[in-house]
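S.,

Sequence below, as promised.
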Amino acid sequence: MSADPKVKEVQVRVEIVKLNKGDEPVPDVEDVPLDANATTLDLTNLRATKLPDLSSLRQLQKLTFRQNWLTSFSCLPPAEGGGGCPHLTELDLYENKLSDLRQCHWPADLVTLDLSFNEIKHLDDSVRPLTHLRELYLVANRLKRIEGITSLTRLRLLELGSNALRSIDGEQLRAVSGTLEELWLGRNKITAVEGLDSLTKLKKLSIQSNRLTAIGEGLANCTQLRELYLSHNGLSGAPAGLSTLTLLTTLDLAGNKLTSLSGVGLEQLTHLDELWLNDNALASWDEVEPVLRALAPSLKTIYLENNPLQKLQPQAEYVARVRAAVPNLEQLDATLF
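The prediction came back faster than expected:
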C-alpha cells in the first residue's frame, strides 16, 4: 500500500514547527550579516540572548530585536573616530526577557522605545535619561504603578495596557502634561478615573477592561479628547462625566451596565462620529432615542446590539427605528448602509 501524501505533508509541517520552536538559542547571532550603511535592522525571532556587534552601524536609525531572549540591553555609545550607533532613535525590544532595567544602557537620543511583553516590574529611574522620548510602549509587563517618567517632557504617547496598575498617578502624569496626547491603560485593575486633571492636551484615552463603576469628574479638564475608550468596565445608570468632552469623535462605552443615556449632557457631543453602546442594559427607547436624534448630524456609526431594546423586537423594526433617529447613519452594528 502506498503512503498517504497527506500524512507526509503533516509530518513535514510538524518538523518545521519543531525547528521554529526549538528551546536552544541561536548560537551564531554574531554571524548575522550586517550592512554598514543600513538605516534599519530587523533581527526578529532569532531566540538570541545577546545582540550582534553593532559598532560598525554608524547610520542605524531603527533596530528591531523582537521575540528574542534578551535580559539586558547595552548599545555602544558614540565614540570619536567610529563605533556606536549615533543616529539610533527607534528601538523595538518587544517580547524579550527584560526584567531589571537598571542593567540597561539606552541610546541617549531615542524617540521611540517598545518594551512590551517583557517581565518588567519597575521603571524606577531607568528611562530618566531619555529626554527625547516621544513614544513609550510597556504593554503586558508587571508594572503596578506609573513611575519613572517625570523627565520625559517630550512624551507624546504612553502605552501601559495589560499590566497590574490599580490607580492613575497624577503627579507622574503632570510632568508630561505639556506634550502627552495618547494614554493607553486598558486591561489593568484601575477603579477610579483620577489623576488626569493636568492632561489638557490629551487626544486619545483608553481605560478599557478595568474596574470602573463611575466616571465622576475625572475627565473634566480633558477637553481636547477626540477618542475615549471605556468599554468592559462596570459603568451603570447613565454615563455622567462626559459633557465637557465636546470635541469627541469616538466614544466607546460597550460592555458596561448602562440603562440610560439621558440627563447627563451627551447631547453636547456634537462632533461624535462613532458611538459604541453594544452589550449594555439599555431597554427603553425613551432613554436613548432623544440623545441619538440630538447627535444625528455627526453620527455615522452606532453599535447598539445585545441590548434589551435590540433583542425584544424584530430586527427590521430595530434597524428602521435607529435609522429614523439618525438619517445619515452609515453603519449600525455590523451592517453597512
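Residues 223-337 form a domain with the Leucine-rich repeat, LRR (right-handed beta-alpha superhelix) fold (CATH 3.80.10.10).

Coffee later?
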